[in-house]
Design brief:
The chain is an alpha/beta fold. The protein contains eight helices and eleven strands. The strands form two sheets. The chain has a five-stranded mixed barrel with strand order 7-10-9-8-11. Strands 1-2 form a two-stranded antiparallel sheet. Helix 3 runs parallel beside helix 7 and helix 5 crosses helix 8. The radius of gyration is 20 Å and the shape is globular.
Length: about 300
């Protein structure tokens, strides 16, 4: 904890409510000994967390955490609450946890609070479907996010809007390597996030409600080179930047508003899953290389003893 933070907490009026497990406890409270929002067993959570939404547009056909856990070795239920389901297992040596919940930045914050405070997970990757707003991105393509436009409300409560929401260069490289090796159509660029699904994405809401500023969103961010739209990635990237964790996001594109490409449920979904899993396997190798040589960051040419560059 930084000294500047300690100075603020010395005068905190509710210190008697901040004992471990209390409702005002640092990082989140406990219910029956487990983190209150997710119900996870912290000892079962992997280093690499994939954050999912129970999204009908992706046509998973069930809870995505449970379904994707079947791709892992020795999958186990690591937590379940009224909001979230979490499974953990291994993929090519990497200890991965899939956590599924509802949509939007506010719910993503709840999962991050539990996971960041109570576990050793340091890598949080958003895996989702998305709408493209860039002419070069097409239905079925993969978008690997480099950073996000913070149109959500949650992250602005934590820190001023000018604070960046960055994805880790290591995650971007690992995911890009997997997309290239798998022969996918893929892009790296900026994602815009908004809490509002309709007017926040430039679409009319109930009874055709819309305001002039909403009409400008799509063309404004298209001109700025933004690739796609989302509801969770900015709070993940912002909090990871703020709390010194690694963020990333991999999106399948199921429509393109600018190109008039109509929605296709689940388009690119399986490709995005492959990119994420193989990307995490790449990241695991990169992390082992760093640990072997004692390097703080991965750079090209770094390799562990007995390994060759590929």
């Amino acid at each position: 904890m930084k000294e500047a933070t300690k100075r603020i907490l010395r005068d905190y009026a509710y210190q008697d409510c901040t004992r471990p497990g209390d409702i005002m406890a640092e990082g989140g409270f406990l219910i029956e000994g487990k983190p209150g929002y997710t119900g996870i067993d912290p000892s079962k959570i992997g280093r690499y967390v994939v954050m999912l939404v129970r999204d009908p547009l992706l046509a998973y056909g069930g809870d995505p955490a449970e379904l994707l856990a079947r791709r892992l070795e020795r999958p186990i239920l690591a937590g379940k609450s009224g909001l979230f389901t979490t499974y953990s297992g291994h993929y090519k040596g990497a200890h991965i946890s899939f956590i599924s919940g509802g949509s939007g930045a506010p719910e993503a914050e709840l999962a991050l609070t539990d996971l960041m405070h109570y576990t050793r997970a340091d890598t949080f990757i958003r895996l989702a479907g998305s709408a493209a707003i860039n002419e070069d991105v097409h239905t079925g393509d993969i978008v690997i996010t480099s950073g996000t436009v913070r149109g959500d409300g949650v992250s602005r409560v934590y820190v001023e809007e000018a604070f960046p929401a960055l994805c880790s260069h290591e995650v971007i490289l690992a995911m890009s390597q997997s997309a290239q090796a798998l022969g996918m159509r893929w892009h790296v660029g900026v994602t815009r996030c908004s809490d509002a699904e309709t007017v926040g994405g430039g679409r009319p809401a109930v009874d055709g409600y819309i305001q002039p500023r909403h009409l400008e969103y799509i063309d404004y961010y298209n001109r700025a080179g933004v690739l796609n739209l989302d509801r969770e990635s900015s709070v993940i990237a912002a909090l990871c930047t703020l709390f010194r964790r690694r963020a990333g996001a991999v999106f399948s594109i199921d429509n393109n508003i600018v190109n008039r490409e109509k929605f296709q449920a689940g388009a690119g979904r399986d490709d995005a899953v492959e990119v994420a899993l193989e990307g995490i396997a790449n990241l695991y190798r990169m992390d082992r290389q760093k640990e072997q040589v004692g390097a703080p960051y991965w750079v090209p040419g770094l390799r562990a003893e007995g390994e060759t560059n590929s």
